Fold:
Amino acid sequence: MAYEEVRVKIPLILRILPWVSILAFFGTWEFIVDTGIVPRTMLAAPSSVFKLFIEKLRDPNPDGALLSVHAWTSIKEAGIGYLLSLLIGLPLGLLMGWFTFVRGIFRPVFEMIRPIPPVAWIPLCIFWFGIELWGKVFIIWIGGVVPCVIDAWAGVKMTNPTLIQMARTYGATDWQIFKKLCIPSALPMVFGALQITLAICWTNLVAAELLAADSGLGFLITMGRRLALPEMVVLGMVTVGVVGALIGVVIDVVEKQLLAGIRR
Amino acid sequence: MKIKISCRNIRKIFIQKGKLQVHVLEDISLDVYDNEFVVILGPGQSGKTTLLRIIAGLETPTEGRVFLDGKEVRGPGQDRGLVFQSYMLFPWRTVVGNVEMGPKLRGIPRDERRKISAHCINLVGLNGFERYYPHQLSGGMKQRVGIARAYANNPEVMLLDEPFGQLDAQTRYYMEKETARIWETEKRTVLFVTNNIDEAIYLGDRIVTLEGKLPGRMKSTYKVDLPRPREHTDAAFLELRHRIIEETQLLL
Amino acid sequence: MSMDTMAAEVQKVVKVKTPITIGRILRNEYFLYVVSFIAFLLIWDWVAKAQILGKSLDTPYEVMKELARLMTVKLAGKNLLGHIWDSTRRVFIGFAIASVFAIPIGLLMALNRYVNSIVKPVFDIFKPMPPIAWISIAILWFGIDEGSKIFIIIIGAFVPCLLNAYNGVRLIDPELYDVVRMLGGNRRDEIIQVCFPAAFPAIFAGLQISISIAWTCVLAAELVSSRSGLGWIIIQGMRLTRPALVIGGMVLIAIVAWLTTLLVSGLEKFVCPWKREIEAV
Structure:
């Protein structure tokens, strides 16, 4: 065969630049706080954020819980809401895509809920659920169910019409076509929905906690503001970002395992 | 007869994915005469598209040189027009917008541009479709826009890379006839790449075949002396076809 | 020639007539929509009257009365239109600033490898942080006035705009650049004639996502601390224990958000008429 192995070099500068950039970013950040260009009441230096991080691993003060407790509360809430979104949204979306009857019944309600940002539900939820777990789960669920339905619906709609016609010539019933044809065809979109829904659930979690909570990462951020401790605020933000990214990676790995062999 | 394009000992090696070395062309030497219609015939994966792209200037040969009118080819340019296999029309421009892109890039003023594009659109037979967007056109029509677009720049040489590969058989026959008609109307040097032997014999003055495996090497040349317009069922046509199939073991 | 008439035929639509029967009506989608909507209102009314959720739900009629009242009464010195305008104004200002910066940066990152390697790492650090998490720090920096809210909206709208501009350029078929070069264009022509127009659909998709994120951000910011706006109306409803006000506010938010989305897609149809219509979900 005419194929041989050969090495191609990426220019050295392109490989260093990302690291230089990140270092410059953190360096500037530390610098502007340490030299007082930005007052300490407004921004916390990376070093003090890191110090607080170490402290909060063991010290429940001054906000009432360890960092891990906060993180776990948030993950719990988001997790339950996320799973509920998938369990309700995906089947609903699949059914709505195929069965006119289901679509006819659920679409008006869905279209009414859809444009309302989940954040707007917060006061209503406080009425109904107080500031307990289920209020936040509801917010997360309302936010997450929408992309699930939409993507599952779109996935079914994208089923190859030729295959559907072929199935009909074999005398398949609507239900059979749905089970054997539409659902497998929709799988790529469904898996796409997993990631998007997760991002949306995580975002809404933070919103829900900002308003009404007594623990959790969003609560940590709000506490930081109330106690005028920017370190806490930044720590909360960073933790939110990191945990969100980690969960995304986990979902990615799970997806790759489940999809090993199926082409997207 | 004047030599329009001259390729000398072209060799091309690609590096794929940063690791794999692919030897695509080896020792290609080819002369194309002025206003000659040359067809490069070969099965898939024989390097013919690469050869065309090298002549177009979009790729540089690893070794060897290409001359156009005696001057070395160093990059793409307005003197060579290329018609792509997958049409490559600008979806955000109408038919007129696509066709006049070449003159527009050369800074030709709008009135003259309109005249040139009107002429080319008329040449390919798309009158009445000037304001249509590519997604509203059928495959054959899209390719005609591609041809008009290449012609609008008044290139010295027309390069066509399996332009009818994505069309169905009926449309393909029709487009072959149209291509012959357009070429007769406005004569030009043409280099036409295809894997279809009927197309090659119908269109070409001369057929150059490449080996069927990488690296692509020149196999043989056939002169097509049949009078135009040609008939697919003509005896001489079929005889030549038979000969080429025998000698290249081209499976159709 | 038959080719042209064939193409014209492709565009003709043929309507098929079917008979009207009771069965067909019951299975008709639009009929079901109407039935479903009415049922929804009836169930809502019943749940509110039977006080299943305690006193925290008002009937649809009460909500409508409240909405009518809002249109005549002044809340905190502004009438309803004033509040709607406050929220919408914040969304548009933040959205405009964000897109004006994010789109060029995204395009630049996709076109220039050096810019990409400098900006992308920092961007990737900030990307997973939800914009709402910035509210507290925004309040620390800008107080509870307009500045903090617009800041949040900018942060929220920035990411999708940049990402879509970036991907919009990256996903362009490289052969399109070949076309421009063959027609005699240089690098500048490539960018102006191919990159920008080809990236428009993706940029508009990004704008649509940005707008809905912007609405979420403005609401969240108004819920936390503000003196006017649609979010403030809802929070007032909560403070005064008036569910009708809360629900009325939510209805208004839905309508206004939907209208702005319509505006952006209308703009897209105007700027990108070539984009093929995929059946909307």
About this structure: Chain B has a mean pLDDT of 88. The CA atoms of residues 39 and 192 of chain B lie 5 Å apart.
